[in-house]
User: What shape does this take?
Amino acid sequence: MNSIFLDSMKRPEDMARITTPQQANAFIDEVVGAVRAQVGDRKVLLALSGGVDSSVVAALLIKAIGKQLVCVHVNHGLMRKGESEQVIEVFRNQLDANLIYIDATDRFLDKLAGVSEPEKKRKIIGGEFIDVFAEEAAKLEGVDFLAQGTIYPDILESDGGVKAHHNVGGLPGGMTFQLCEPVKLLFKDEVRVVGEALGLPHSMVYRQPFPGPGLGVRCLGAITRDRLHALREADAILREEFDIAGLAGKVWQYFISVPDFKSVGVRDGKRYEGWPAIIRAVNTTDAMTATIEEIPYPLLHKITDRITHEVEGINRVVMDLTPKPIGTIEWE
Ligand code: XMP
Assistant: This one.
């Protein structure tokens, strides 16, 4: 069979790009064949974060090897509101996947306590992930592969030294897993086309991306549980209001970051010191560059009003107007 996609592994920049369902199906056929050949009758462990990339990898691998895929969803305590529940609903209940759910919130937050340096936080979260998976793998028979939702921009940016993305390489010595990264040559928009061709729900395939380290890179500086809780609640309000305003399917990525300093405010006639919530809403096709979405002022006022009244600990809302470059999309 002539390969359009996989023969060019060594030169991804020469690969045919995927924009149509036909191209997606050709890609899927090639990957399914390649994964079956690679894996045989052995088992694959997948870090299923619930983001677009890992969800599409899960669907690809379910198609290729069914129950030989063991999906592990680690709730690291850095998920968005309601997200772990949704992963269980879609993958365990609807797609009948082999899914293990682990609530590792305390383990992650204890390790992160007092750590403020962004790269150190990323490395702790990535390292802890690997440890959790290794522990899960040790409990299972015959798991030889670790599947990951690495996409091409992750590799480019890691090569360029911009950020240490947790899902690029980095397996500690002694680990016996081989990597299975079926979408590592694709850009995000291509992953979405493939996801739709695989029959995943539109709402899942087009949901905005969420970084592996989750709210950990949005709860800026040293993470505390109270500020993390405030961030999660404020983010849920932002998402709800974008949904209502019809922006959810239009804006590529939007979220809140909460820094680790307070300002003076007044609530109910009393001094009220709180953290600022920073809104970021960007558009991009490949996440390598990004422009700012112009949010209507009435909507910004409504979001500000809701967050400052409904979220304990937040007393200001500000908007980040910085394109990428010079700002990366995430603050850390
Ligand atoms: P940056 O901040 O590098 O983000 O401009 C580009 C896109 O990548 C997401 N992102 C990550 N995704 N693991 C991921 O899977 C990570 O460690 C990670 N860091 C950033 C970010 O949300 C944006 O969509």
